[in-house]
C-alpha cells in the first residue's frame, strides 16, 4: 500500500512523533522512509542573510542526520536529504514527494518556530490542502502499533468516498476495525425552518451516507465495521467520538460537499487536524489516488 513514505522534519517533538509513525508503517508495509528538512530562505537584510542561511542549513542537516540515525538503528530502510528553497516550504515538500513517487507524507502538525526552524504546524495545513497524495499528521503520540481501530467520517461526498476506500484498504492490511460516522450539523438547521422536518431530512441523508460507506467496507472484505449518526458541530463531534471510542486513527477527505444538506468536509478536516490528539490521515478527492 505504501512503498515510499516522506517525513519532513524540523527536529521538533512533533516531527519525531511523525518519524516514529513512519517507522511503524515502514515495518508494516515494507516501505522506504525518506527524511527531508527544508532550509528555506527568508526575506532578511543583506547584512545578516548569509549567516542566517548558514544557520538554516546547519539546523536542517542536524535534523535529518538525527532522524536517519534513529531509523537505521530501528533497521528501517531510509534516505535523508536537505532541501534548500527560496519559496514556500510546503511547496518544496510536495515537489519532492512528486519527484520521488512518494505514496504518503507523514508529518507533525506542530513544530518549532524561529530563525532555525520552519513552522511545521502551518506547513502541515498547507501541505494537506495541496498534496496529491495522502498526508498523515501526528500531534502527540505516534500512531499506535498495531493500528486496531479507525474512525471514518462521511458526508456522502466523493471526498468521503475516496477517504473511505483508502481507510478500508489500510484496515484490511492491518486487520483493524472501522467506525463510520456522519455528523448532523445542528448549526446548519438555523431558526427559520421547521427544524423537525429539516432534521429528519438530515437524518435520512446521514443514514444514506453511512450505508454507502458501510457497503463499500463490506465489499473491501471488512467484517468489523460499526457506525453512528452523531449530532453537533462536525469537527468537534468527530474529535470527541474518536476520544470516546479510543480509536487509533481518523481518516477523512479534505474536499466534501457544501450547501444546506452537507457540511463542508474541507474546513472540517482542517479543524480536526488542529484539535485531534489522534493521528489524522487526510486525502483530497480531487488529487489523491487510491491504491
What value does the Rg take, in angstroms? 20 Å
Question: Which whole number gives the mean pLDDT?
Answer: 86
Secondary structure tally: strands? 10
| N- and C-termini, Cα separation | 6 Å
CATH topology of the largest domain, which one? Rossmann fold
Strand content: 15-25%
CATH superfamily of the largest domain: HUPs
The biggest sheet amounts to: 10 strands, mixed
Helix content: 40-55%
Order of strands in the sheet with the most strands?
Answer: 3-2-1-4-5-10-9-6-7-8
* Estimated structural class: alpha/beta
Number of domains: 2
Count of DSSP helices? 8
User: What low-confidence regions span 5 or more consecutive residues with pLDDT below 50?
Assistant: 112-120, 257-265
CATH architecture of the largest domain: 3-Layer(aba) Sandwich
SSE order, one letter for each helix or strand: EHEHEHEHEEHEHEHEHE
Gross morphology is globular
The first-level CATH class of the largest domain is given as: Alpha Beta
